[in-house]
Amino acid sequence: GTPETRTPTGAETGVPPTAKGQQGAYLTTAQGARLRDTDHSLKAGARGPVLLQDHHFREKIMHFDHERIPERVVHARGAGAHGVFTSYGTAEGLTRAGFLKKNVETPVFVRFSTVLGSRGSADTVRDTRGFATKFYTEEGTFDLVGNNIPVFFIQDAIKFPDVIHAGKPHPDREIPQAQSAHDTFWDFVSLHTEAQHHTIWNMSDRGIPRSYRTMEGFGVHTFRLVNDAGETVLVKFHWKPKLGVHSLTWEEAQLLSGLDPDFHRRDLYDAIESGAFPEWELGLQVFPDTPEETFAGVDLLDPTKIVPEELAEVQPVGRLVLNRTPTNFFAEVEQVAFHLGHLPPGIDVTNDPLLQGRLFSYLDTQLTRLAGPNFHQIPVNRPHAPVNDMLRDGFHQQAVHAGVAPYRPNSLDGGNPFPAGDAENAFVDVPVRVAEAPKIRQNPASFDDHYSQVRLFWQSMTPVEKDHIIRAYTFELGKVYEQAIKERQLQCLANVDPILCAQVATGLGLPVPEPTQPLAEVAASPALSQVGHVWPPD
Ligand code: HEM
């Protein structure tokens, strides 16, 4: 555990390594022995049989046989790129995070994805898109693992296996690859009505982005920032694309699925290779860190809710430019491992129950996907900050750790007494008060409103956008076999808006149901003067 024996950082080894063995003067085995022939197996005579002693044959076939690793359980289809994040310094008063101080340049790797299709599925299907960013900061890696839709289907991570089981292809026929044109998806979202907000975003043009370059990104959850003085604020992260937000039309999306299933991947790589570097601005919505953790009546721990930007403006804090395509898709895009717990000092989590569950899930799945506990040593995952941990051994260990005492304090490797710790630069968990309350399996009452923001979204749409939403619901629900499921979803739409409901019902040839609850009053938002702004920081 001394700094001299640590694993080399990504910066030192160069991410990614650019070995071009196959372009050398001659081929070798994996052991470096020169080969004369890689096209013929060793046989007993020209007509065989093949001899078991042919090590080159066995090594080549063995390695090929094991080239595949499991695809991600969600977000399997993706594309990625390297870039640089430059901070403006505008968040300096809010967080001690060094990479948000003025004019700091931080290398990044971004992976965009669809959620539900498998690795080889088409890019332009109707689905949510992932937008995951790894900032290799000098104080440790920060992963912002977001989506292009600012809300999520569920409020508690314990339902994540359920919503994904419902959204993935049916277990019997393994169709469809697209998100929503099937019975189990609509069964789930009409029974778990907190999903209706995310669903209407999917049915809108946001569900079929034109390009990764024209997508917004959202951290979704509320996070907590802490500054040098120990003061905290609550924030939501936003990525705003420089090119603006643009979508495909449904007809374009369908055609492209056939003509060019790699449309988004190709667009990203072609743009970067031609020097048209994609850009986003990172922004924050900032809220006072009150004990209630609400803002303008919105529960900030409920991931199915947004805070309208009219009530809390998005404040720009830095700029992201993607300027380098991967050298090797597998090594970088496939092996990258994001995690919400990768936080530098100055950024902390909140008690959002969806966020809390994610903190468990990603490490857990990566342990299988990347075969063992050492995937942080894969070049794309290596921090650029110096690493001095006491993690040892395990599958795929690449480091040669010197010393005999990977524990602290010790009296053998110069580790006694253990220095009190580097309080000034270390990550310190914000000592948030934990409620003195009984253990309980229940949502807070503030999570019960499932419709008012769905209605707010619908009412904010232009006529042509509304038309697209009606057509999307009608098309996707039209693929459902069970009539009772269509009727239950129409019932949900009745609680959103009578025109939306009637138009979709007509398209499906079904009766228009009455709402089961009064339509939410969304026009009146709290006066801006009543909202406690904390921007700009002093
Ligand atoms: C993967 C976003 C909720 C489990 C991903 C990825 C993104 C993402 C962008 C792809 C990462 C990559 O490119 O490698 C989100 C967002 C969520 C959310 C924005 C809600 C706000 C959840 C929840 C769970 C979960 C609640 C589980 C409790 C996973 C798993 C992966 C994944 C297992 C695969 C990770 C891997 O194999 O490396 N998520 N997710 N996600 N997510 Fe989520």
Automatic annotation (TrEMBL):
It comes from the Bacteria. It catalyses: 2 H2O2 = O2 + 2 H2O. GO terms for cellular component: cytosol. GO terms for molecular function: catalase activity; heme binding; metal ion binding. Its EC number is 1.11.1.6. Heme binds at residues 72, 111, 160, 358, 362, 369. Decomposes hydrogen peroxide into water and oxygen; serves to protect cells from the toxic effects of hydrogen peroxide. Belongs to the catalase family. HPII subfamily. This is Catalase. It comes from Actinoplanes friuliensis DSM 7358.
